[in-house]
Design goal:
Belongs to the GSP J family. This protein has 228 residues and is an alpha+beta fold. A five-stranded antiparallel β-sheet has the order 1-2-3-4-8, covered by helices on one side. A hairpin with a 2-residue loop joins strand 3 and strand 4. The longest helix is centred in the N-terminal third of the chain and has 54 residues.
């Protein structure tokens, strides 16, 4: 009588462990690949958003500066249409009148707060006054529209009065060493750049303005804008 041998079926413990190790290695490699792809996507999206913000910021700067206009006889003779002034903290503030489709003209400007470049918009046509800093006497000329006030001292620097309704919007962040310079031609047709404006009463608008700044993760940026 012959006996038949039964064949063993299934996996041994060692084979099962080897299979699990292979699956774990494949899973780890797949996860690292997916994680790397996701990190690359997030990095690219971050760069894209950063450049979109920069593009929007420079577009706002250009849009406002290209609308700069002289108000002429609507302002007192000694009151500038365009002012670039140095602040006590070493930064600069640019204030100018620009054409507005609703108000006809609107006071706007730029200043730096920390590492942010701010776009300033006065909510109303602000009446302006000429205020002398002389200790002996003070004379002023005021317009009649609006309820806020602003003063211009003898050196030509515009100072918003307390409570003036100003909308300040951050248009660029991560900026440093922001410097505005304006271009003019002298009486003998020499081309010069100034870091303040106006150089004299009734100077009107400069011919152009240059903006220099350092931007985080971008480097040094320079832009030129023609005003007239």
């Amino acid at each position: 009588m012959m006996r038949t041998k039964r064949l063993a079926c299934g996996l041994t413990l060692i084979e099962l462990l080897v299979a699990l190790i292979i699956l774990a290695v494949i899973g780890l490699m797949s996860w690292r690949g997916i994680d790397g792809a996701l990190r690359s996507r997030d990095h690219i999206v971050g760069i894209e958003q950063r450049w979109q913000k920069l593009s929007r910021g420079f577009s706002l700067i250009e849009h406002n500066l290209l609308q700069t206009a002289e108000r002429g006889s609507s302002l007192p003779a000694a009151l500038p249409d365009f002012t670039l002034q140095k602040l006590p903290n070493g930064n600069q503030r640019l204030i100018f009148w620009r054409m507005d489709p609703v108000q006809g003209s609107r006071l706007s400007g730029f200043r730096v707060d920390g590492d942010k470049l701010m776009l300033l918009r006065w909510m109303h046509n602000v009446p302006l006054s000429m205020a002398s800093t002389s200790s002996s006497s003070a004379s002023s000329a005021t317009s009649s529209a609006g309820s806020s006030s602003m003063s211009l001292d003898i050196s030509g620097s515009i100072q918003p009065a307390a409570g003036t309704d100003i909308d300040a919007e951050s248009i660029l962040d991560g900026v440093h060493n922001v410097r505005w310079t304006v271009h003019m031609l002298t009486s003998d047709k020499r081309s010069i750049w100034l870091d303040s404006w106006p150089p004299a009463p009734n100077s009107g608008l400069p011919r152009g303005i240059r903006l220099d700044m350092d931007i985080d993760n971008v480097g040094h940026v320079q832009r030129l804008f023609a005003l007239r």
